[in-house]
Here is the input.
Amino acid sequence: MKIKISLLLIISILLLCACGSSSEVKYDELPFMTVGDTSVSIPAAKLYFYAFEKREEAAGAKTGGTPWDRVIYSDGNITYADYVKEVLFYENLINSLALSAMFDEENELTRQDISDIRDKASKFFDHIEESDKKALGLKQKDVEELFVLDLKSSLKEKEYLGEKEKALSEEEYRVCMVQKYIFESIDDAESFLGSISGEKNEPDNSLAKDSLIINIDKQTDIPTEQIKDIFGLKNGEFSKVYEEDDEYIVYLMLNVFDKDLSIIRKNELIEEQKKSAWQTACAKYIETAATFYNEQQWKALKFSSGDGFSAGLADLFDYLE
Here is the structure.
């Protein structure tokens, strides 16, 4: 499974990056993580982590709570807490470091950028409860560091994606609307198609077990043959009969090109394309760059230890926007 592979990769990184035993290394004096020449401090990383926690808790409160120990992938006994820490937090942080390092190789922030960062960081630092600052060991410079990291990674992401975006053909994002008729037997389905005659072109709907209107695009999870045939239909045309899970299906084309839904799908595909592009770039950079992982501090990050932090830490993401 993808999640399992991610966890194994993280374990491998920890083993490769550990330098000596914990008695020989003062982990609390080292960065939390380093990619290339870009690092994030322990207090800044902790702030980012517990902001993630509080954001998830706030979202969970709207749906009945956040069960951190709920197993979401039985293969490997992966809990929701594992997923947020090992995937959401980890991937966001290491990709931000990689993008920031790539940014520094060819660019630099303007004086206005730095001024804006200091202003936003100061406001958020003042917003944080004093008890949270003390527990995190947080200084304003740590907050500024996080804001610099966010801005550099965002700028590099936009720069990189602007170069990598490719044009999409209409067929790649076209969404059509069809009526799906479901039959219990092949005889009912064939009789249904046989009932279409004359100018009225009205089938005997009583033969269908059920029918529903659905939207279909090239990525819809149905057999490729059906997708190809459906996209070849004209408005008002019926498909042939398909067998599917002991049922029989016939499609009626209602709208060969739903303009509004197609525009939405196009934008979704562009975002997916962009995300894939910068993730690939980050993966290649991380593979060759010198990477340090503070094993001791990573192990110390636990959701249970965040119970004492205030919900206001989640506001970090609003300040970063």
Observations:
- The mean pLDDT is 84.
